[in-house]
Amino acid sequence: MKKDTHPDYHTIKVVMTDGTEYTTRSTYGEEGAVLQLDIDPTTHPAWTGGSQHLIDRGGRVSRFQKKYAFLNK
């Protein structure tokens, strides 16, 4: 096997947006580096099911709703 083909795998500290921390192994930064997250599973709408709303640009949503209103009876 070739030498120096794999990245350095070491321990880092991850800090979530709410301030909680955990230690994990990663190739990020140097040994003991701190990774400060801007978005994490506790705040991102993809994981939390955040509020969704439709933006009606050019009346597309309105036209669609009007066209298929008979299905909603």
Give an overview of the whole structure.
The chain is α+β, with helices and mostly antiparallel strands and 73 residues long. It is built from two helices and three strands; from the N terminus they run βββαα. It has helices at residues 45-48, 60-67, and strands spanning 10-15, 21-26, 34-36. The longest helix has 8 residues, at 60-67.
Lay out the secondary structure:
Blueprint: E1 10-15, E2 21-26, E3 34-36, H1 45-48, H2 60-67
Shape: elongated
- How big is the Rg? 23 Å
Lateral arrangement of strands in the main beta sheet: 2-1-3
Number of helices: 2
How far apart, in Å, are the first and last alpha carbons? 68 Å
| Low-pLDDT windows of residues | none
The average pLDDT is 83
Please give a handful of descriptors for the protein shown.
73 residues, alpha+beta, three-stranded mixed sheet, 2 helices, 3 strands, elongated
Short account of what is shown:
This protein is α+β, with helices and mostly antiparallel strands. Helices cover 16% and strands 21% of the residues.
